[in-house]
Amino acid sequence: MNTYTRSLKEESAASAVPRQRRDGAKPWFFAFAVKIILMCAFIFAAVTCRVRYNAKIESLNKEAAKIQMRIRKINLITANLRNKREELTAYPYISAKIKQYNLGLREADYRQISYLRIIDLPEKRAVKRHVASSNGKYAERHTALASVR
Protein backbone atom coordinates (compact mmCIF):
# COMPACT_ATOMS: atom_id res chain seq x y z
CA MET A 1 0.00 0.00 0.00
CA ASN A 2 1.14 3.43 -0.52
CA THR A 3 1.55 5.83 2.30
CA TYR A 4 -1.56 7.88 1.52
CA THR A 5 -4.07 5.03 1.64
CA ARG A 6 -2.39 3.53 4.69
CA SER A 7 -2.90 6.81 6.60
CA LEU A 8 -6.58 6.94 5.60
CA LYS A 9 -7.19 3.42 6.91
CA GLU A 10 -5.53 4.17 10.17
CA GLU A 11 -7.51 7.41 10.68
CA SER A 12 -10.87 5.82 9.91
CA ALA A 13 -10.25 3.01 12.34
CA ALA A 14 -9.20 5.44 15.03
CA SER A 15 -12.09 7.88 14.43
CA ALA A 16 -14.82 5.24 14.65
CA VAL A 17 -16.51 5.41 18.04
CA PRO A 18 -18.07 2.23 19.22
CA ARG A 19 -21.84 2.53 19.76
CA GLN A 20 -22.65 1.82 23.29
CA ARG A 21 -25.68 2.62 25.34
CA ARG A 22 -25.08 5.71 27.39
CA ASP A 23 -26.28 5.87 30.92
CA GLY A 24 -29.42 8.02 31.48
CA ALA A 25 -30.40 7.97 27.79
CA LYS A 26 -34.10 7.61 27.03
CA PRO A 27 -35.09 4.42 25.32
CA TRP A 28 -35.71 4.62 21.58
CA PHE A 29 -39.36 3.66 21.86
CA PHE A 30 -40.13 6.79 23.93
CA ALA A 31 -39.10 9.08 21.03
CA PHE A 32 -41.02 6.86 18.65
CA ALA A 33 -44.12 7.01 20.88
CA VAL A 34 -43.95 10.81 21.06
CA LYS A 35 -43.78 11.04 17.26
CA ILE A 36 -46.75 8.68 16.88
CA ILE A 37 -48.77 10.64 19.45
CA LEU A 38 -48.05 13.93 17.66
CA MET A 39 -49.03 12.44 14.29
CA CYS A 40 -52.26 11.08 15.78
CA ALA A 41 -53.01 14.51 17.32
CA PHE A 42 -52.52 16.22 13.94
CA ILE A 43 -54.72 13.66 12.19
CA PHE A 44 -57.39 14.04 14.87
CA ALA A 45 -57.28 17.85 14.52
CA ALA A 46 -57.58 17.63 10.73
CA VAL A 47 -60.52 15.22 10.92
CA THR A 48 -62.24 17.39 13.55
CA CYS A 49 -61.83 20.51 11.43
CA ARG A 50 -63.13 18.69 8.37
CA VAL A 51 -66.22 17.45 10.23
CA ARG A 52 -66.92 20.92 11.61
CA TYR A 53 -66.57 22.55 8.18
CA ASN A 54 -68.81 19.90 6.62
CA ALA A 55 -71.45 20.63 9.27
CA LYS A 56 -71.23 24.37 8.53
CA ILE A 57 -71.45 23.75 4.79
CA GLU A 58 -74.50 21.55 5.29
CA SER A 59 -76.26 24.15 7.44
CA LEU A 60 -75.52 26.87 4.88
CA ASN A 61 -76.86 24.65 2.08
CA LYS A 62 -80.07 24.10 4.05
CA GLU A 63 -80.45 27.82 4.62
CA ALA A 64 -79.83 28.52 0.92
CA ALA A 65 -82.49 25.96 -0.03
CA LYS A 66 -84.98 27.63 2.34
CA ILE A 67 -84.23 31.03 0.85
CA GLN A 68 -84.65 29.67 -2.69
CA MET A 69 -88.01 28.19 -1.72
CA ARG A 70 -89.09 31.57 -0.31
CA ILE A 71 -87.99 33.28 -3.54
CA ARG A 72 -89.98 30.78 -5.61
CA LYS A 73 -93.02 31.30 -3.39
CA ILE A 74 -92.76 35.09 -3.68
CA ASN A 75 -92.38 34.83 -7.47
CA LEU A 76 -95.48 32.62 -7.60
CA ILE A 77 -97.46 35.09 -5.49
CA THR A 78 -96.29 37.93 -7.75
CA ALA A 79 -97.35 36.06 -10.88
CA ASN A 80 -100.75 35.26 -9.32
CA LEU A 81 -101.27 38.90 -8.36
CA ARG A 82 -100.29 40.05 -11.85
CA ASN A 83 -102.78 37.61 -13.40
CA LYS A 84 -105.51 38.71 -10.95
CA ARG A 85 -104.84 42.37 -11.80
CA GLU A 86 -105.09 41.64 -15.51
CA GLU A 87 -108.32 39.76 -14.91
CA LEU A 88 -109.84 42.56 -12.83
CA THR A 89 -108.87 45.31 -15.27
CA ALA A 90 -110.14 43.44 -18.34
CA TYR A 91 -113.17 44.86 -20.13
CA PRO A 92 -115.35 41.74 -19.79
CA TYR A 93 -115.01 41.80 -15.98
CA ILE A 94 -115.73 45.53 -15.80
CA SER A 95 -118.72 45.30 -18.13
CA ALA A 96 -120.10 42.36 -16.11
CA LYS A 97 -119.85 44.42 -12.92
CA ILE A 98 -121.55 47.37 -14.64
CA LYS A 99 -124.45 45.11 -15.65
CA GLN A 100 -124.54 43.43 -12.23
CA TYR A 101 -124.87 46.71 -10.31
CA ASN A 102 -126.90 48.53 -13.02
CA LEU A 103 -124.40 51.31 -13.36
CA GLY A 104 -125.31 53.64 -16.18
CA LEU A 105 -122.48 55.08 -18.17
CA ARG A 106 -122.80 58.34 -20.02
CA GLU A 107 -120.46 60.63 -21.87
CA ALA A 108 -118.42 63.07 -19.87
CA ASP A 109 -119.85 66.57 -19.41
CA TYR A 110 -117.58 69.23 -20.83
CA ARG A 111 -118.11 71.29 -17.66
CA GLN A 112 -116.54 68.53 -15.58
CA ILE A 113 -113.24 68.64 -17.47
CA SER A 114 -110.67 71.34 -16.77
CA TYR A 115 -107.26 71.80 -18.29
CA LEU A 116 -104.15 73.39 -16.88
CA ARG A 117 -101.93 75.31 -19.23
CA ILE A 118 -98.46 76.48 -18.30
CA ILE A 119 -97.74 79.92 -19.73
CA ASP A 120 -94.65 82.09 -19.58
CA LEU A 121 -94.88 85.50 -17.98
CA PRO A 122 -94.27 88.20 -20.59
CA GLU A 123 -91.73 90.27 -18.58
CA LYS A 124 -89.45 87.32 -17.91
CA ARG A 125 -89.04 85.92 -21.44
CA ALA A 126 -85.27 86.56 -21.46
CA VAL A 127 -84.63 84.04 -18.67
CA LYS A 128 -82.93 80.80 -19.70
CA ARG A 129 -85.28 77.82 -19.80
CA HIS A 130 -82.99 75.03 -18.50
CA VAL A 131 -83.96 73.51 -15.19
CA ALA A 132 -80.65 72.07 -13.96
CA SER A 133 -77.23 73.44 -14.76
CA SER A 134 -74.00 71.47 -15.07
CA ASN A 135 -72.99 72.25 -11.47
CA GLY A 136 -76.22 70.78 -10.08
CA LYS A 137 -77.91 74.03 -9.06
CA TYR A 138 -81.44 74.67 -10.18
CA ALA A 139 -82.32 77.80 -12.13
CA GLU A 140 -85.65 79.51 -11.64
CA ARG A 141 -88.36 79.14 -14.26
CA HIS A 142 -90.75 82.04 -14.37
CA THR A 143 -94.06 80.48 -15.34
CA ALA A 144 -97.64 80.76 -14.23
CA LEU A 145 -100.60 78.37 -14.24
CA ALA A 146 -103.83 79.28 -15.91
CA SER A 147 -107.01 77.25 -15.64
CA VAL A 148 -108.96 76.93 -18.87
CA ARG A 149 -112.40 75.37 -19.09
Descriptors:
two-stranded antiparallel sheet, elongated, mainly alpha, 149 residues
Percent of sequence in beta strands: 5-15%
Global structural class: mainly alpha
How does the major sheet shape up? 2 strands, antiparallel
Shape, per Cα inertia axes: elongated
Distance between the termini: 137 Å
Helix count, DSSP H or I runs of 4 or more residues: 3
Going across the major beta sheet, what is the strand order?
1-2
Uncertain residue segments: none
Q: Kindly state the number of beta strands.
A: 2
Give structural notes.
This protein is mostly helical and 149 residues long. It has a domain at 27-103. The protein is 56% helix and 8% strand. The chain has helices at 3-15, 28-88, 91-100, and strands at 115-120, 143-148. It has a two-stranded antiparallel ribbon. The longest helix has 61 residues, at 28-88. The N and C termini lie far apart (137 Å). The mean pLDDT is 77.
Task: Set down the secondary structure blueprint.
Layout: H1 3-15, H2 28-88, H3 91-100, E1 115-120, E2 143-148
Antiparallel strand pairs: 1-2
Brief summary:
The chain has 149 residues and is mainly alpha-helical. It has helices at 3-15, 28-88, 91-100, and strands at 115-120, 143-148.
